[in-house]
Amino acid sequence: MGKADRNADSTPQAQGKRISAGNRMARNNNATKAQQDGTTVEPIRTKRRQQYSDKIAEAICDQLTEGKSLNQICRDDPTLPSERTVRRWIRDESHPLSQPYARAREIGLEKIGDDVIALADKANPDNYNAIRLQIDARKWFLSKVAPKTFGDKAHHTIDTQVVHSVAMPDDNELTRILAAAINDASQQAPVLLECLSDTGQSSTV
Description:
With about 200 residues, the protein is mainly α.
């Protein structure tokens, strides 16, 4: 091989062709081995980075309202972008998908809550353990992603009031009050005795 041939073989285009050829050979080898073993090989699907569109947003939000996860939506629909791309969109609060996604997710959580009731209605002695596992998984998920709405503990707002303390009198003040009370009582004693005396006399008549 001449120098010119070696230079041509080292270009990015040539290297890309070799990588593609190697990938095809690896897939063919895997397919041949799978046929010999009697197994099947799932094709490797890669998604291109897609531009945002209202159609994509509508497809994602519609399925979110049904209680599906974003991972499931992007995995099962080849026309949609990857989960990583969608999450990159919604992390940006100014992105047009951010608010519709949040609202659709909220509705989807309510749908999952409804599913818990539906599952409980289907329970019987034969499927009790399986139903309980499904219910517990959904309840755990809801309590983590929406604890204020679906958490086990209720969140209450407590209004606090300012309590004004009353200053207790000191010993000197107590002594003065007690002395005044005794003085008043001593002044009222003759009047009380006179009243009692009059009452006794009237009763003997």
